Amino acid sequence: MRIFFSLFFLAFPILLFSQVNSAKEIDYNSKYNATDSVKKKKAPVATLDMYQFISVDRDTTYIDTTQSIKKEYSYNYLRKDIFGLLRFTNVGQTYNTLQYGINGFSPYPEFGFTAKQFNYIKANEIKYANVATPVTELYFKTTIQRGQSADSYFTLNTSPRLNFSIAYRALRSEGRYINQEARTGNFRFTTSYNTKDGRYIANAHYTSQKIQNEENGGISSVSDFESGDSSFDNRARLGVYFEDAMSLLKGNRVFVDQAFRVNKKKGANNLYVTEQFNYENIHFDYAQQTIASTVGGKQVFRYGESFVTSGINDKTKYNKMYNKAGLVYENTTLGAFTFFVDDLRSNYYYNKILYFSDKVVPNLLSQTINTVGGQYNYRKDKWNGKFLYSKSVTDQNLSNLDASAQYDINDENQISFRYQNMNKLPNNNYDLYQSSYKAYNWSNDFQNEKINAISVNATTKWVSLSLQLNSIKDHLYFADITTETERNEGKQIVAPAQYGNVINYASLKVAKEFVFGKWALDNTLLFQKVEQSNSILNVPEFVTRNTLYYSDYFFTKKLFFQTGVELNYFTNYYSDSYNPLIGEFFVQDRVKIGNYPNLDFFINTKIQRTRIYLKAEHFNSLFSKNNYFSAPDYPYRDFLIRFGLVWNFFN
Description:
Elements: H1 2-16, E1 51-54, E2 60-62, H2 69-74, E3 85-87, E4 95-97, E5 128-131, E6 135-142, E7 147-159, E8 162-173, E9 182-194, E10 200-215, H3 222-226, E11 245-261, E12 269-288, E13 293-295, E14 298-300, E15 312-331, E16 335-349, E17 354-355, E18 360-361, E19 364-380, E20 383-392, E21 399-408, E22 414-424, H4 428-431, E23 432-433, E24 442-443, E25 449-459, E26 464-480, H5 484-488, E27 494-516, E28 519-531, E29 542-554, E30 559-570, E31 577-579, E32 584-586, E33 598-607, E34 610-617, E35 629-631, E36 634-635, E37 640-649
């Protein structure tokens, strides 16, 4: 029903706001109409640069309906290139991380439960539109077994100064294993407004998001999967730890970003007052009716003893209100100077206080954080730079220094540099967590993480390079603290931990495409190295994606055709494992995954503004060993044929 609703309410505006007048329609806005004997006046043509999509940082992109290999990479559940991420068995589940730092860093404490948030759209990921004519985009893709994935988007300007957009992303995927169904929904509404003289600009959005997963805890007998026994080709015959567990992440957000120019007319010197407001509430639920699992004919209590004999229903709730006020002085020669203050108030809470013989676990973690800071932006000719520094004036000792510069040599070549020095507060679920499982209750007071990060990026017509150097002290992570006795009993006990030593991380990513007539070989290679006294930050040393494909036009260039084979590979390493109870990955040093190729065959076509995709995923699993995993106990996807389309409507 959600898929139907998603398509219906966005197909309806297509009929309501038709973008091409039929020959029998009367154009009341034209000087001439279809009943005149005089030739109808030609309507103005909207160019692609009149369809703008603007981020909260005022970065602008334009509508793109072309078909390229980059579009193939981003045609997925997350709607973006996922190089550096490793998909789980079912669509709508979490992703393992192959590249450290791929999600960026923020000095502020977040809710946590990060394994559940890959499809949770953040405030800085929302785009605001400004379009010449109404625009609709419909995305559809099949999933695994029963279900579909859809994303529908509609936007229009009621005037040159006022825009609205509405979008809904929905998914249902049953999966092939027991208790693995995924259901998600992401509703977004945005509006943008600016006055005629440009003195006042406002962007606002509302989101309501729900990510629901049946959680089976992984397969209970890895040897059954790896044996290659044909009786287990039906994956529902493989035993799992949980047959009735479920996790749910749900959140709503109201966001407003606005600016007012104090001087009436824009000149060489301008003064602005800015304000940003963000209110968000999120909750994470874990429910499990049956506590004991059956593995090899024996009862297993996977997460240890519990306070209840059945019907676990853990609930973690969180809300935050963020306000930021700034004063900006802009000089057309010198750049823009910003002074700002912000206020973050958050509550992370449970329903009761827990008393143990050796500790007390409170029910509330309430934080008030105030910071002051300054920012300098320079954008002129071929240079674009930013320098930001902020520091808390409350007791948390939060700080962030972020400096970046970009130089555009020409349209095809540019180089950029960024340095970040951050004193980061722990996410809330490191400091406080409550569960019906006795071992999963904690109250901590961890130190701030200290992160130094340097990145250099060079994009040229020959090759693209990205160098990243990180130094991390007091790194926070989730650790496997299961004793050998508990492990023999099939238990898995995880708790937060902090690594007091320094971790040094370096990576080099190289991207290069070779073109031979209508054939091309697109390559992305990632080299990573970690220096540490203990194995805490674990990543594969080498990750690669190589795509050999053919492109051509047919039928007098009315159809664009593209087909090829994509290879994904990473070296084996001690991958982090997934724990659905806490919605996090944890460090382990017992099982390695990797060192297997993943081959996909695809056919893509484009007819006018419709892009059609057909893909045979992981086809080499038909004749390879069953040694492919996304995380310990979680096999990677088997061979699967999927198809779908992206359809754009605009004039």
